[in-house]
Structure formats: structure tokens, C-alpha cells
Amino acid sequence: MITKQEHTLAKLNAFRTILQLARKHKAESLCQIAEDLYKQAIIMAKNTPEFELIILLESLFELASYYSFQGKENEAKPLWEEIKIRADGYLKADTYIYVQSIFNLSRLYEKQEDIKKAEELLKELLQTQELQFGDESLEICSVLKQLAALYCRQQKYSVAESIHLRILVLKEFHLGTCSVEINSTVDALIDIFQKLGKWRLAEYMLNRQKAILVALHGNNSLCVASCVFRLSQLQELHTRELNKAIENLQYAIDVYKERFGEQAGPVALLQRKLDQMLFAKLENQMVVDEISTFELPVPALTTV
Predict the structure, then answer these.
(1) Separation of alpha carbons 228 and 93, rounded Å
(2) How far apart, in whole angstroms, are the C-alpha atoms of residue 183 and residue 168?
(3) pLDDT for 155-185, tens place per residue?
(4) How far apart are CA 53 and CA 79, in angstroms?
(5) What are phi and psi of 2, to 5 degrees?
(6) pTM summary value
(7) To 10 degrees, what angle do helices 96-111 and 141-153 make?
């Protein structure tokens, strides 16, 4: 006689087989078969109370992700919503399935121009994470990043700036001042400062990024050269620091020469740019010299 435990185990094995077949057909681009198998797995999970809820959530998540990949957002949306409802209070607020479902659902609302609902979803998740992990925890950084990205897409750059600065403080506290995670936040702030026309702050962050990249990859890495080239452009066009711009562009050229050789196309382009800067510097100096040597006529003193 088959026991209840053995019966449940058999159902679970059958469920796993269906899910594996769905994944296999998805990988082979057999879309309709994969979709039907995912639906079958979800029905089976819902009709088997003894299954763990996580099994159902995983099935819903995979099918929703599959629909989103195919651009079937209308089919994906109710699945994301169901995951959120079922996972609330069941999964921890940093569980991948739970967090990504809310991110995807928020993005869908945004695409449908329901910005308020998209924002509310992310703020609700942030509040939940802050209650579970603390408002100074590293766990909240991913939802803060999503919230900042939402504001950037709405061109609310000042709000996004404050959020990224909060992320930077949290990452520095937990990860130190030089890490890949820090660099991504610094890069986001550079972009925001440039959009806001805060050129001195953008320059500061580019110098900060250069120091991070040097610590991670060494002085002569291509990523450092790319950062320094961006810094040179900003200093030439916006902060009007031609000497610094020339120095940084020369640095970038030296790295590219070492990697690609003096005759490489990018090196030649940057060298022409450097020549233009040097010529502009020479012209500026000539103007300064001419002004300094020019003597204004002294008016004759007259007596009354």
C-alpha cells in the first residue's frame, strides 16, 4: 500500500519532470510546448496543497519570465501580481523571486504610464526591506537603485541624485571606498551630475572613479584610460581647465599607445585632438602675452 508520503513524493517527482521538460523545450525555442508544460506545472502545484508554496512561486516566476522574454507583457503581468500577493509575508524581502517580481511589475506599470503605481511598488518594497534589515543595510541598495532609475527615466534627476548618494554612503560603509559596486554608483552619479550641469561635481566623481579603477585594475588599464579621456573632455568643454585636460588626454594616449601601438586608429584620433588642445593653449597664451605687453596711453595732465 502506498503511503501518503510516497504519494506526495511521486507527485513532486512528476512536477519536477514537467518543469525540467519545460526548461528543455524553452532552451530549444519550442515556445508553445514549453508554455503548455509551465501551465501544467502551475496547475499541479496549485492542486497539491502539500507542496511547498515556493514550488508554485518558482513555476509562476519561470513562466512570467518566459512571457516577458517573448514580449508578452499582458500574459506576464497577472503572474507577477500573483507572485507578489502570494509571496508577501512568506518570503524574506530580499528573496530573488520576490524582489525581481516586484521590479518587473513596477517596470510594466511604468510602460503602461502608471508611474504612480510603479513608484508605490518600489517604495513599499523599500519600506519592507528597511523594517526587516534596517535602513543602513546593504540589502536595500538594489531597490534604491531601481527607484533612482525610475526617477531618471522621468527626468527627475535631483531626486535620483539624492538616492544614489545614499547608496554610495551605504556601499562605502559596508564595502570600503574601492570596489566594483562602488564604481557603478559613482558612474551613475557622474551621469546625473552632467545632466544637471553640475560640472565640478561631475569632475570630482570622475577623479574618484579614476582612483577606484586604478586600485582595481592598475594605472595602465584601458578602463582607466577611458575614464581619464572622459575627464579630459569635461575639463576642456565645461570646467575650462585646458592644462588639466591636456594632461589627462596625454595620459590616455600613452595607455592606448602601449596597448595598441602608435599607428592604431584610436591613437591617431586622440593625438589629433591633443594637437588641437595644444594649439588652443598656444593661442590663449599669445593673447595673454599680447594683453600684458599692450600699454594704454596715459592721458596728459591738464591744469585749470
Answers:
(1) 39
(2) 9
(3) 999 999 999 999 999 999 999 888 888 999 9
(4) 15
(5) -80, 125
(6) 0.83
(7) 10
- Give the C-alpha separation, 60 to 42, whole Å: 7
88 three-class SS = coil
- Number of neighbours of residue 101 by Cβ within 10 angstroms: 27
Calpha distance 301→304 (Å, rounded):
10
Cβ-contact 263, 238 below 8 angstroms: no
Please report where in the chains the cell 519570465 appears, as a residue: 65
| Residue type, position 124, single letter | E
Distances in whole angstroms, Cα of residue 280 to Cα of each of 236, 243, 275, 291: 11, 10, 9, 17
- Tally Cβ neighbours within 10 Å of residue 15: 20
Better-predicted residue by pLDDT, 282 or 126 = 126
Q: Measured between alpha carbons, how far is 80 from 144 in angstroms, rounded to an integer?
A: 20
- Residue type present at position 111: K
Judge whether 256 and 268 are in contact, CB under 8 Å: no
Whether residue 171 contacts residue 138, with contact meaning beta carbons closer than 8 Å, is answered with: yes
Domains and CATH numbers, the chain: 16-114 (1.25.40.10), 218-285 (1.25.40)
User: For 72-113, what is each residue's pLDDT tens digit?
Assistant: 999 999 999 999 999 988 888 889 999 999 999 999 999 999
Q: Rounded CA gap, 98 and 64, in Å?
A: 13
